[in-house]
Amino acid sequence: MAAAALDLEKLRMAGAGMAIAVLTSGGDAQGMNAAVRAVTRMGIYVGAKVFLIYEGYEGLVEGGENIKQANWLSVSNIIQLGGTIIGSARCKAFTTREGRLRAARNLVQHGITNLCVIGGDGSLTGANIFRTEWGGLLEELVRDGQISEDVAKEYCHLNIVGLVGSIDNDFCGTDMTIGTDSALHRIMEVIDAITTTAQSHQRTFVLEVMGRHCGYLALVSGLASGADWLFIPESPPEDGWEDLMCERLGETRSRGSRLNIIIIAEGAIDRNGKPISSNYVKDLVVRRLGFDTRVTVLGHVQRGGTPSAFDRVLSSKMGMEAVMALLEATPDTPACVVSLSGNQSVRLPLMECVQVTKDVQKAMDEKRFEEAIQLRGRSFENNWNIYKLLAHQKPAQEKSPFSLAILNVGAPAAGMNAAVRSAVRIGICQGHTMYVVNDGFEGLSKGQIREVGWHDVAGWLGRGGSMLGTKRTLPKTCMEKIVENVRKFNIQALLVIGGFEAYEGVLQLVEARGQYEELCIIMCVIPATISNNVPGTDFSLGSDTAVNAAMESCDRIKQSASGTKRRVFIVETMGGYCGYLSTVTGIAVGADAAYVYEDPFTIHDLKANVEHLTDKMKTDIQRGLVLRNEKCHEHYTTEFLYNLYSSEGKGIFDCRINVLGHLQQGGAPTPFDRNYSTKLGVKAVLWMSEKLQEVYRKGRVFANSADSACVIGLRKKVVAFSPVTELKKVTDFEHRLPQEQWWLNLRLMLKMLANYQISLTEYISGKMEHVTRRTLSIEKGF
After folding, report:
1. 122 is in an annotated binding site
2. Are 518 and 529 contacting, i.e. CB atoms less than 8 angstroms apart?
3. Do the strands 767-768 and 114-119 form a parallel or antiparallel pair, or are they unpaired?
4. How far apart are CA 752 and CA 476, in angstroms?
5. 203 is in an annotated binding site
6. DSSP H or E segment with residue 606
């Protein structure tokens, strides 16, 4: 403990004497407020002074009232707001030297030499120019007698850190920029809404989405909605595309589809660099096919609304890391951008990112389109290839001898249907016979098995829950019957999409191989559960949707508490013994505490939390929100916490309980879950096909090596296959948990942002990584 106390002291002094300023610039993006909040609080936490600069670079140039010192409460209750509360403006003055001279004087007057800029590539490039000129600007101020020599010496160096805030996701080197996920949420809400009216009237819709010269939003929303045709600037359609597109649209209609969705990026061009407009596409469809066609331009809706859970957590992580980067900066470290790679924080040299971002534009201008797609990064390229594979049925080269069966096991989770859809379609592309099974392992034992075709899974992408039906039944209760049906239908591969039971079930099948030769087949588990408790993956399908559902409920609860004053809500989340859901939701809604099984707590901790809330009630923020995972403690139940808080807070605050329950399982899947499910479905079946080829001898499949039964999952940055027999060694079966969980280090952030005195020795700083054409070609998971 003494060591921890010492570390805490050291940390609280690390930023003493430092002054950090935060500004948001360029187009706004949802999640900027969460970033401002995290930078401000982390800055104050390490003992620095933090200043908020209002109206972006304009406020920096104008100075005066636009630069204000912030305290802990300045950024309270803003995490759920879209846009940026400190304002953003496009600024002409800052692009001139005299504008930057005034900006330098304003910073020096406040003693600020650390600048955190949240904005797009233009804003970040501007910050870097400012930094390189800093010495010269100060000399000029000394010459003009505006500052003294001593002051110039004291503030001789400016540190800069950037956070990329842009809904376009057009900044190379970063997986996701702040606001991208929320913009996709807005787009998918609109597409889901339009789909229903299009079906009623048998219409064709042309949807134009934002993204400037980057096709990311169009691409992911096309992939996540199963659009019929897609225009992105990085890959213009071949000449004569008009004929092909109309032929495709006609085909889908003649097969019984009642609608067509065409998605077009605002920067769409043809092979000659000539813009393709949404009206041109509409007129074409009307003229050639006579379909009732409408155009919807989404416009600024995409920038609006509340930030998604992903954006809130991403921004909080990046804000915290930005302060760490400023603490560790020296005059020799290059200006850096804080980013996320997989689920790890990284720092990237700002100018390297800007350079590659410019290279993409140059490649597009010079019509080197293949290269443009590669420079966007491997996951962009993957998305594009998967979209092309799944959008239209291409006849398989030849019929394969293999039959694959797909089933859902456990509790329903959003994204299950999307995974079934992509798996079925990719299997058909490969010429396999594709079966689906109703009601999990129980259905497999009862023979509820049917063959499906390409169009049987149309429209499954955006549906929540499980269309096949799920059951928690494990195979050991009906092993003989399962084996009988595997033999009867000649199933050579089994794709099980589900939660902990799916993993446990496949393990039981593998362990029964000694008794039943029929089970010597290829098996793969796609983890799908809101609890995110399957070993072998960092994220399960459905957990993103569940976190968003819990977060929306908590936002409303917080609003109610703000109205009543002096009220603390105790909210119980699902998740079994796994605290992922309550921890991540806690970060996304700015909870005061989140109790989970993995982070053991005692009565002393509960007492400290009550005192913490009592202190909080003395400030202007008179509300509290405490999350509790359903199985976090055998004796400290939700009821117990309610009684404890009520009696200890008597006369200071009152308490209410909210149990979120099954609303966390429902709802349409989020864009992340749709995209992730689609990718995992494709990768799983491709892997299974490869394995089937390897073990196919004399007309039959015989597989009994460990690597013939795996869990597919995202681990750090890559999609990996882990044998279930290996995972067994790192699983806690009693509590249905992996023994090690990556998200536990997020709890430090939760506690720091809620103002608890904790040591951050366990905090893992991001490493500086370089951005080159080679690093961009590395296969990233998402």
Report:
1. yes
2. no
3. unpaired
4. 46
5. yes
6. helix 603-617
Q: Which residues contact 98 (CB under 8 A, 6 or more apart)?
A: none
Angle between helices 121-143 and 97-109 (to 10 degrees): 80
By C-alpha distance, which of 326, 250, 239, 246 is closest to 281? 246
27 labelled as ligand-binding?
yes
Is 449 annotated in some ligand binding site?
Answer: no
Q: How far apart are CA 101 and CA 103, in angstroms?
A: 5
- In this structure, the strands spanning 19-24 and 49-53 are parallel
168 has catalytic annotation = yes
DSSP label at residue 265: E
Q: Which residues pair with 21 in a beta bridge?
A: 51, 115
Q: What is the pTM of this model?
A: 0.95
Residue 760: pLDDT over 80? no
Virtual CA dihedral for 474, 480, 485, 490, nearest 10 degrees?
110
- SS3 of 41, please? helix
- Known binder of ligand: residue 303? yes
Tell me the chain's radius of gyration from C-alpha atoms: 28
Which DSSP category does 165 fall into?
Answer: B
Is position 210 annotated in a ligand binding site? yes
Average pLDDT over residues 619-644: 93
Over range 573-583, report the average pLDDT: 97
* Model pLDDT, residue 1: 42
For range 249-254, the mean pLDDT: 90
Query: Three-state SS for 532?
Result: coil
**Residue among 7, 28, 168, 544 flagged as catalytic:** 168
Listed residue (409, 438, 422) closest to 540, CA to CA: 409
Cα separation, 4 vs 23, whole angstroms: 33
Chain mean pLDDT for the chain = 92
In the chain, the amino acid numbered 325 is A
Residue pair 688/680 in contact by the 8 Å Cβ criterion: no
Distance CA 337, CA 118 (A): 10
Residue 255 pLDDT > 90: no
- Is 148 known as a binding-site position? no
Q: Would the annotation count 567 as a binding residue?
A: yes
Q: Which of 741, 745, 717, 742 is nearest to 587 (CA)?
A: 745
So what's the pLDDT on residue 8?
61
Torsions phi, psi for 511 (to 5 deg): -70, -15
Give the integer Cα–Cα distance in Å for 722 and 711: 5
Crossing angle, helix 580-589 and helix 309-328, to 10 degrees? 70
